Amino acid sequence: MSTYSDRAINQLQKGRELLRNACAGASPRARRLLGFASTRLTNHPFDGLCGVQDGVPLSAAQMILGYSQGLFPMDNGGRLRWHCPDPRFVLHLSELRLSPNMRRDIRKSNFTHTFDREPKAILEGCADRAEGTWLSPRLRQLYLELFDLGVMHTIETWKDGALVGGSFGVAIGRIFTGETMFHRVPEAGKSSFACLAQHLRERGFTCIDAQDHSDHMARFGAREVPFAEHRKTLALGLIRSVQFLDGAAAAAQQPEPAKPVSEVKTAPHVSAHQAIRVNEVSEPAAAPLREQLPS
What we know:
- The structure is a single chain.
- Strands 9-3-8-7-6-5-4-10 form an eight-stranded mixed beta sheet, sandwiched between helices.
- The chain is built from 13 helices and ten strands.
- The chain has about 300 residues and is α+β, with helices and mostly antiparallel strands.
- It has two domains: about 5-85, no CATH class; about 90-280, Aminopeptidase, CATH 3.40.630.
- The longest helix is centred in the first third of the chain and has 19 residues, at about 5-25.
C-alpha cells in the first residue's frame, strides 16, 4: 500500500509533467542546467548528459567515455564544458569527394605527410590563434595523455623540412572525431585532410565526425545528420574496432622515405611515420575500400 496520499501522488505527477514540458521547450543551455532531469524527461537527453558530465572531474578516461557517447569537451573561458550538437556534421568516407581542381592544386603543392610524429607541436599549432582558442593548456595535456593511450592521433604536413600544417582527432571504434587543424601556407589544410581521409578509409574507418558545420568540410562531402542517426553509426563502429596504425608502424621512431606512386597504390595501408607525397593522394571511390580513382 502506498505511503503517499492520492493528492500527493497527483501533485508529483503534475510536477513531473510540468518539468517535462519545461525541458521539451527549453534551449540546449537550459537542458544542460537541468542536468540529470533532462536526461530522463526530454527527447534531447544528451544536452542534459552534457550537464551531468560538466560536474565530473575531467580525465583521459572520462574523455574516452564521453567520445564513445558522441560528446566532446571544449574550454569555455577557463571552464571545461561538454558539447553534443544536433544535427551533427559528418563525413561518411564512402561519400568523400575531391573536385578535379582540388586534386590539381594538391598535387602541385608537393607536401609530405606523416602520422603521429609530432603530437605536441600539432596541438600547439592548433591552439595558436589570435582570436583565442577552446584548446586550453589543460585540454592539450589531456589529449597528450590520450595520445599515449593510442586514442588521439595526428597528421603532420611538411614542406622543405618545416611543419606547415596538421590536425588531430580521436579514434573510437571506426569513428574518427576530427577536432581542429591549422595551416601556415596555402593548400596545406586541404592536402592534409585529403591524405588523412584516404588513410582512414583504407584502415577501415567509416566516417569522420566534424561536429559542427564548416565550409572546409562541406567541400569534401560532409553533411548534417540527426544526432540519433550519428549515434547509430557510432554504436555500430564500436562493435568492430579498427586501428589507426598497425603495430609495426606505431613502433617506428623515424619516418621512412616516400614510396613511389605505384608502390603506394598497391600497399594495403599507409603506415605511421611513413612520409607520403601529396601527389600520391587520389580520391577514394565509393566502391571497394582500397580502390583508387584514376588521375
